[in-house]
């Protein structure tokens, strides 16, 4: 049975208002809180002026033709990085490259087509990059779709949100691991969402075949992204890959996700439009990602985002990690399932 559509506040983080995370849940929550105290917190007003030069570094940004991905690509290029934007639409890709070069003459930016919901497309992109890049210093797993009203299916037969938001990025990161390992200090930043707080990995119905709720499926995909980021760090440490894996979320940012997902004429879309002046711009929403990708003090295995108004907006800091995301047994199980679905492993 389809669940009742939650409001944008519920989709975001209303669970926090109920106090479930006030003291942390179990040992994992206590260790997370202790670790946060010991580590350097971001400067709350960290901005683009604080971003160090990225000259000589090479980044890939998925979904970089609009929204926060565009802001990521533009900021990195303006800081001197070589940036590859990967997205579905070549025409929009060419327009995006032209916009960035117009704003920053001499910017090193190019477009590569990819459909993250098509594992063959992901494989082809990785092959092109391996043939043309000496290494990859940063991967920003940003692209996403949110809450399409009807259940979609990817080219490989997977639920569209899980395929696009999570599994495509899992496969892309695996295929780019050799390029990343050629870097002296590679970073992978994976975008989650405050919606992850209400997510649940339903291993018995991962593809939402028994019942599709667009918001529950979105929350599951974003929880999977966060679990992947944390598990990737654990596996990098264990295997000696040298990868710094971090996660970030934007709070609630004004992008095209709602228009392309539930739609502006939906109940969710109307509430979002009514309250949009309270939320971050795409440029503000990109700051946690850019901090995680570039700041010298950014910590591997950490989760960054805004810290005010139940993390919907505000000063940059450590984001709250839902208890489900620190379930190491579930993360290992999700990793194994993902390798099977994607037909590849991390080597």
The CATH class is identified as Alpha Beta
Counting helices, strands and paired strands, the structural category is alpha/beta
* Count of runs of 4 or more consecutive helical residues: 12
Number of domains: 1
What's the name of the CATH homologous superfamily? NAD(P)-binding Rossmann-like Domain
Portion in strands: 5-15%
Count of individual beta strands: 8
Q: How would you describe this protein?
A:
- With 347 residues, this protein is an alpha/beta fold.
- The protein has one domain (47-340): 3-Layer(aba) Sandwich (Rossmann fold), CATH 3.40.50.
- Helix content is 44%, strand content 12%.
- The protein contains twelve helices and eight strands.
- It has helices at residues 8-17, 26-38, 67-78, 90-103, 119-132, 160-181, 214-239, 257-260, 267-275, 282-285, 287-294, 328-342, and strands at residues 58-62, 82-87, 108-113, 138-141, 187-191, 244-248, 303-308, 313-318.
- Strands 3-2-1-4-5-6-7-8 form an eight-stranded mixed β-sheet, with helices on both faces.
- Helix 5 (119-132) runs parallel beside helix 6, helix 6 (160-181) packs parallel to helix 7 and helix 6 crosses helix 12 (328-342).
- It is globular and about 50 Å long.
- The N and C termini lie far apart (41 Å).
Write a concise keyword list for the protein shown above.
Rossmann fold, 12 helices, 347 residues, 8-stranded mixed beta sheet
In short:
With 347 residues, the protein is an alpha/beta fold.
Topology, element by element:
Layout: H1 8-17, H2 26-38, E1 58-62, H3 67-78, E2 82-87, H4 90-103, E3 108-113, H5 119-132, E4 138-141, H6 160-181, E5 187-191, H7 214-239, E6 244-248, H8 257-260, H9 267-275, H10 282-285, H11 287-294, E7 303-308, E8 313-318, H12 328-342
Helix pairs in contact: 5-6, 6-7, 6-12, 7-12
């Amino acid at each position: 049975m389809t669940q009742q559509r939650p409001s944008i506040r519920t989709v975001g983080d209303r669970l926090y208002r109920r106090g479930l995370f006030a003291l942390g849940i179990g040992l994992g929550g206590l260790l997370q809180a202790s670790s946060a105290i010991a580590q350097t917190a971001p400067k709350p007003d960290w901005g683009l002026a604080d971003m160090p030069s990225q000259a000589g570094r090479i980044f890939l940004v998925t979904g970089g033709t609009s929204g926060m991905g565009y802001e990521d690509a533009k900021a990195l290029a303006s800081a001197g990085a070589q940036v590859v934007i990967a997205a579905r639409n070549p025409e929009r890709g060419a327009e995006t490259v032209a916009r960035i070069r117009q704003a920053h003459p001499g910017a090193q930016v190019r477009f590569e087509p990819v459909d993250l919901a098509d594992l063959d497309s992901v494989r082809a992109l990785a092959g092109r990059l391996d043939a043309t890049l000496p290494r990859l210093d940063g991967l920003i797993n940003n692209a996403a779709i949110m809450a399409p009203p009807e259940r979609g299916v990817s080219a490989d037969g997977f639920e569209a949100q899980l395929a696009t938001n999570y599994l495509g990025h899992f496969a892309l990161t695996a295929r780019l691991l050799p390029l990343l390992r050629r870097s002296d200090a590679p970073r992978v930043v994976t975008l989650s969402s405050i919606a992850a707080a209400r997510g649940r990995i339903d291993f018995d119905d991962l593809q939402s075949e028994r019942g599709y709720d667009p918001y529950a499926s979105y929350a599951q995909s974003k929880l999977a992204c966060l679990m992947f980021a944390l598990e990737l760090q654990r596996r990098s440490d264990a295997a000696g890959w040298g990868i710094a894996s971090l996660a970030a979320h934007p709070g609630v940012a004004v992008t095209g996700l709602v228009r392309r997902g539930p739609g502006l004429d939906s109940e969710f879309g109307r509430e979002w439009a009514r309250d949009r002046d309270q939320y971050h711009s795409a440029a503000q929403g990109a700051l946690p990602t850019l901090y995680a990708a570039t700041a010298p003090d950014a910590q591997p295995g950490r989760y960054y985002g805004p810290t005010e108004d139940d993390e919907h907006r505000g000063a940059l800091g450590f984001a709250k990690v839902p208890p489900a995301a620190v379930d190491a047994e579930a993360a290992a199980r999700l990793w194994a399932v993902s390798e099977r679905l994607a037909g590849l492993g991390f080597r």
